[in-house]
Amino acid sequence: MPEIPFTRVVSVSSEDPRHPAQNLLQPDDGGHWRSEKAGEKQISVVLELPGDRPIHSLHIGNDGSAFVEVLVGTAAGGDFQVLLPTAAFMTPSESRGGTGTAPGGGEGGLRRVRIFGPDTLVKGGVGRSWDRLRIVCTQPYCQTRPYGLSFIRIFSSPEDNDPP
């Protein structure tokens, strides 16, 4: 499946100057996007895609968000449509404790990675062409740490001539 790169950050509701949303444009560089301060209940970012592209799957790396929702839209306007309904990345206890399910009680929840294929994405959004992606991260359980994403990667449909 070919990866669809992001071209720019269109807008962001909150960002830590040390961990700006711009980091999401280079997922291999290890930069994160985090809220500006602890205690923000919800943050969002809109990313631009290079032209109208159909989306087949998403890979999302968490950085302390309890929930993540992904919406799609176009530069031409109109409302964003849900592509990935709100997905849980951390339980309330993981959120409050800053821990997760990693062996030895490490940061499994904080750094959890989830992959969403066409079977988990909203059917109306899969296969249609989009040039905007809006990511909404929520953390209602912990007021002591900034949160966001480690990365997000999106992929188009496998080509018919691609090897399996």
UniProtKB/TrEMBL annotation:
Residues 1-154 form the DNA-repair protein Xrcc1 N-terminal domain. Transmembrane segments: none annotated. Gene3D superfamilies: Galactose-binding domain-like (2.60.120.260). It comes from the Eukaryota. One of its GO terms (cellular component) is nucleus. Residues 11-37 are annotated as: Disordered. One of its GO terms (molecular function) is damaged DNA binding. GO terms for biological process: base-excision repair; single strand break repair. InterPro entries: Galactose-bd-like_sf (IPR008979), Xrcc1_N (IPR002706). Pfam families: XRCC1_N (PF01834). This is XRCC1 protein.
